[in-house]
Design goal:
The protein is built from 18 helices and eleven strands. By secondary structure, the protein is α+β, with helices and mostly antiparallel strands. The strands form three sheets. A six-stranded antiparallel β-sheet has the order 2-3-1-6-5-4, with helices on both faces. A three-stranded mixed β-sheet has the order 9-10-11, with helices on one face.
Length: about 425
C-alpha cells in the first residue's frame, strides 16, 4: 500500500530532473543575442485609389492600409527587413494587439543559407499623444493616425514566453519617451498640402532616451532572475517556501535595485493571485491571462491564513533568511534552481514555472483523495501516504483552500491530528 507514495516521489524526482534537461535541449543557442526594433505605423482611415496611393520606400513595408517605417533598431539591415515583413503580415491579419503583446517564432535565412529561429515579442502602442497632431488651420483631425509597434527579439526559441507580463509592462513604459512634436519651420508649413503630414513631425528623443530605454529591455524584464539567483544561492529554497505560504518579505542591507529585483523574483514565484481566483473569475478569464489556472480544480473560496513574515538580509553578497522555515519539497526545487545556468534567465524561469505547476498538481491530487476519503477509509489512508511522501505536508495541510471546503473539513482535521500524533511518537 506504500506504492502510491513511492510512485509520487519517483514522479516528483523525474519532474525536477526534466525541468533542467528540457531547457538544456531548448537552449542550445546563446541566451545573450537579444535585439529590439521600434516602428512607426501609419494607419490610413481614408479610402484611396491606387493612383494616389503612396509608393513604399526602401525603409517601409506598405499595403493598401498600413505604412510601417523603422524608427530605431540594433538589428542588421537584412534581419530588420525580414522582421518588418513579418510584422507587416501580422498587421494584415489583425494579429498585432494594442497594449498587450504577442510572442511568435520568426525564421530568418541568411545569404549563406543559414537558418536562424527568433523568439519575437511585438506590441502596438496606440493613443500615444492625447492631442492629435493638427497641422491645418481649421483644426480638422489628421486622417492618418500614428501608432507605434515595439519588437523585442531573442535568438533561442521560446525564451520570451515566460516573461509576457514583464514585457507588456516594459513595452508600455516607452510611451513616456515618445515626445512627438510639431515642426514649426515656416518653409515646411508651406508644403503641408503636398507632403505626408507624418513628415511634419519628429521624435526628438529617438536617438537618446528612446534608444537607451529599448536597449535595456532585457536587463530589466529578464535578467533580474539571474541577478537574484547569484545572491540567493542556497537561500532560494526559503524564497520558494515563502511563495507557497504567501509570506510577507522584508529586505535589509540591500540597494534599491536589489530590492526591486527580489520583488520581481518573488512575484514570479508567487501563486497567491492564481489561487485566489473564484469560480466565476475562472469561467470568465481567458487562457492567456490565467496562465496555469486551467490546471486547478474547483478549490472553493480562498481563506488566507495569517501571513508569515520573512526577513531577507544581504551580507557579503549572499542573502540570509530569518526564519529559515522550509520543506523537503522546497529544498528539492531549490537544488534544481541552483543547478541551472545562472546566466540564462529563461532557464531559471522555466524551473520556477515547473515548481508552481507541480505544487498545483499536488493540491489537485490531494483534494480528489480527500473528497474520496469522506466515504472511503482506504482513500483516507492514501491521502495520508500522499501527504507523508510529498515532502510538503505542512504547506498542503495548512492550505487555506482545503479548510474552506465543507466536504473535506473533517477529513483534513483527522489527518492533521494523525500526523501530529505520529510526530510525537518516540522512535
Amino acid at each position: 500500500m506504500e506504492e502510491n507514495g513511492s510512485e509520487e516521489n519517483t514522479s516528483a524526482a523525474s519532474d525536477e530532473k526534466s525541468a533542467t534537461s528540457d531547457m538544456e535541449q531548448k537552449e542550445e543557442g546563446r541566451d545573450f543575442d537579444r535585439h529590439f526594433a521600434l516602428y512607426s505605423c501609419n494607419v490610413h482611415k481614408e479610402e484611396r485609389n491606387s493612383e494616389t496611393e503612396s509608393i513604399a520606400s526602401e525603409n517601409s513595408q506598405t499595403d493598401s492600409n498600413v505604412s510601417l517605417s523603422v524608427l530605431s533598431t540594433d538589428l542588421d539591415a537584412s534581419v530588420e527587413t525580414e522582421l518588418r515583413k513579418f510584422i507587416g503580415q501580422k498587421l494584415m491579419k489583425n494579429l498585432v494587439y494594442s497594449d498587450t503583446g504577442s510572442i511568435s517564432s520568426m525564421e530568418y535565412r541568411s545569404d549563406d543559407d543559414v537558418k536562424t529561429s527568433f523568439s519575437c515579442y511585438y506590441c502596438m502602442l496606440e493613443n500615444v499623444e492625447e492631442k492629435q497632431l493638427v497641422v491645418n488651420g481649421d483644426n480638422t483631425p489628421d486622417p492618418q493616425q500614428r501608432k507605434y509597434i515595439v519588437c523585442f527579439m531573442a535568438l533561442q526559441k521560446n525564451s520570451l514566453d515566460y516573461f509576457q507580463r514583464e514585457l507588456d509592462v516594459y513595452c508600455n513604459g516607452v510611451v513616456q519617451y515618445l515626445d512627438q512634436q510639431v515642426c514649426c519651420d515656416p518653409s515646411m508649413q508651406e508644403e503641408q498640402d503636398t507632403q505626408d503630414k507624418s513628415k511634419v513631425t519628429e521624435l526628438t528623443n529617438i536617438d537618446t532616451s528612446v534608444r537607451t530605454y529599448l536597449e535595456n529591455w532585457c536587463e530589466v524584464t529578464m535578467d533580474y532572475t539571474c541577478r537574484c539567483m547569484k545572491i540567493l544561492k542556497q537561500s532560494a529554497k526559503y524564497i520558494l517556501y515563502g511563495a507557497l505560504v504567501d509570506a510577507r518579505f522584508q529586505f535589509e542591507g540591500m540597494t534599491d535595485q536589489q530590492k526591486d529585483d527580489l520583488q520581481r523574483f518573488l512575484k514570479a514565484c508567487n501563486l497567491s493571485e492564481i489561487l485566489k481566483q473564484t469560480d466565476q473569475e475562472k469561467r470568465e478569464a481567458s487562457p492567456a491571462s490565467t496562465g496555469s489556472l486551467d490546471l486547478l480544480v474547483d478549490l472553493g473560496e480562498y481563506n488566507a491564513a495569517p501571513q508569515q513574515t520573512i526577513t531577507l538580509t544581504l551580507a557579503q553578497n549572499m542573502v540570509n533568511c530569518s526564519p529559515e522555515d522550509c520543506t523537503i519539497f522546497c529544498e528539492d526545487w531549490g537544488k534544481v534552481l541552483n543547478k541551472t545556468d545562472l546566466n540564462r534567465a529563461s532557464q531559471i524561469r522555466h524551473v520556477l514555472e515547473a515548481f508552481k505547476i507541480k505544487y498545483i498538481q499536488s493540491i489537485n491530487t490531494l483534494k480528489r483523495l480527500l473528497i474520496q476519503a469522506e466515504a472511503d477509509y482506504y482513500a483516507l489512508y492514501k491521502s495520508y501516504v500522499f501527504i507523508k511522501n510529498s515532502g510538503n505536508a505542512e504547506v498542503l495541510l495548512n492550505y487555506g483552500h482545503l479548510d474552506s471546503i465543507p466536504e473535506v473539513q473533517d477529513v483534513v482535521k483527522s489527518l492533521k491530528e494523525f500526523i501530529k500524533e505520529i510526530k510525537q511518537t518516540p522512535g
